[in-house]
């Protein structure tokens, strides 16, 4: 707020679970400023709604956000609060300027989300993961016999 972004931003604080989807659907940008974030499913959900994303450089942020779907903050943003605020301010300005200029089109973001996180992709990835796990177990069991 000290950076003057309260005129164009809504700071909700904690939101009841049943209100989250409605708030996200009414937004232009989704920010996930977590210090630690393993899965980051919420980033896929935001992209499925067509929202450009700004995320801290956690594993999830680096994996889930691509240049065409948003901005991942620099690693320096996690060093201290001042660096985080400066990085968030810069990233939000960059994303909102791009949206105003016709970038980060919601349909393009939704399409990319379907490609990366849709049902077919998810099922295929899970099947491959389970096959690898089973093969690893089977290979270990065979080598000890």
From TrEMBL:
Keywords, A to Z, come to: Transferase
- Which Gene3D superfamilies does this chain map to? Glycogen Phosphorylase B (3.40.50.2000)
Domain Glycosyl transferase family residues, every copy: 3-93
Pfam hit, one: Glycos_transf_1
The entry's protein name is Glycosyltransferase, group 1 domain protein
MF GO annotations? glycosyltransferase activity
Q: Which organism is it from?
A: Actinomyces naeslundii (strain ATCC 12104 / DSM 43013 / CCUG 2238 / JCM 8349 / NCTC 10301 / Howell 279)
Q: Which SUPFAM superfamilies match?
A: UDP-Glycosyltransferase/glycogen phosphorylase (SSF53756)
- InterPro entries reported in the protein's UniProt record: Glyco_trans_1, Glycosyltransferase_grp1
Top-level taxon: Bacteria
């Amino acid at each position: 707020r000290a950076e003057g972004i309260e005129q164009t931003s809504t700071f909700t604080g904690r939101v009841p679970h049943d209100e989250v989807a409605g708030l996200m659907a009414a937004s232009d940008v989704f920010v996930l400023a977590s210090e630690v974030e393993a899965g980051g499913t919420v980033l896929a959900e935001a992209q499925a709604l067509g929202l450009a994303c700004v995320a801290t450089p956690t594993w999830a942020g680096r994996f889930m956000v691509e240049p065409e779907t948003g901005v991942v903050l620099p690693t320096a943003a996690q060093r201290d609060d001042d660096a985080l605020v400066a990085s968030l301010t810069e990233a939000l300005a960059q994303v909102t300027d791009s949206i105003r200029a016709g970038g980060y089109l919601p349909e393009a973001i939704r399409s990319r989300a379907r490609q990366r996180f849709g049902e077919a992709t998810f099922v295929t990835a899970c099947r491959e993961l389970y096959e690898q796990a089973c093969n690893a177990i089977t290979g270990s069991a065979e080598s000890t016999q």
